[in-house]
């Protein structure tokens, strides 16, 4: 099973639920947080340009890492979008949940993404290297 990388921020998240954990994690001082995960087909299309998602520009954007489409991010299709706390921030509004591509939600729900639509999950921050995160292409 593959890890998820957030689209909106430069940190990575391990997302787990009642299904197997995607990323091993180290103990953290703060507890895991319960949120929802839904899907949107835009995150399933490998040719989606990063300019059509909020993570594209700014110093912390994925374009600054050298990527131009979703499929160029090494963890595609396991990408999760989360609202920014503020533009170009590395902080995210985690209580609002995540949006992933259909294939990723199918993987979390054993092929039931269309049936369930939204799932409750538990997440926590983990280090980039634990999730097979992206490297700067520059």
| Order of strands, widest sheet | 1-2-6-3-5-4
Series of secondary-structure elements, N-terminal to C-terminal: EEEEEHHE
Reported for the largest beta sheet, the result is: 6 strands, mixed, barrel
The average pLDDT score comes to 70
**What separation lies between the terminal Cα atoms?**
28 Å
Task: Please give the number of β-strands.
Answer: 6
CATH level 1 class label? Mainly Beta
Subcellular location: Secreted
Signal peptide: 1-18
Family: Belongs to the cerato-platanin family.
InterPro entries: Cerato-platanin, RlpA-like_sf
Question: How would you briefly describe this protein structure?
Answer:
The chain is 8% helix and 22% strand. The protein contains two helices and six strands; from the N terminus they run E-E-E-E-E-H-H-E. One of its GO terms (cellular component) is extracellular region.
Structure description:
By secondary structure, this protein is mainly beta. The chain contains two helices and six strands; from the N terminus they run E-E-E-E-E-H-H-E. It has a six-stranded mixed β-barrel.
Which key phrases capture this entry?
Barwin-like endoglucanases, 6-stranded mixed beta barrel, Cerato-platanin, disordered N terminus, mainly beta, secreted, 138 residues, 8% helix, 22% strand
Question: Which secondary structure elements does this structure contain, and how are they paired or packed?
Answer:
Elements: E1 4-6, E2 12-16, E3 33-39, E4 79-81, E5 98-100, H1 102-108, H2 113-116, E6 118-126
């Amino acid at each position: 099973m593959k890890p998820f990388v957030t689209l909106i921020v430069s940190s990575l998240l391990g997302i787990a639920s009642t299904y197997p954990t995607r990323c091993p994690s180290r103990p953290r001082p703060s507890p895991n947080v319960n949120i929802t995960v839904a899907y949107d087909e835009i995150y399933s299309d490998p040719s989606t340009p990063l300019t059509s998602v909020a993570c594209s520009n700014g110093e912390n954007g994925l374009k600054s890492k050298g990527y131009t489409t979703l499929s160029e991010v090494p963890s595609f299709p396991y990408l999760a979008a989360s609202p920014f706390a503020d533009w170009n921030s590395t902080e995210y509004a985690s209580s609002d949940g995540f949006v992933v591509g259909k294939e990723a939600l199918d993987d979390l729900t054993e092929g039931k993404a269309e049936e369930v639509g939204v799932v409750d999950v538990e997440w926590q921050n983990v280090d980039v290297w634990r999730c097979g995160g992206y490297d700067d292409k520059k």
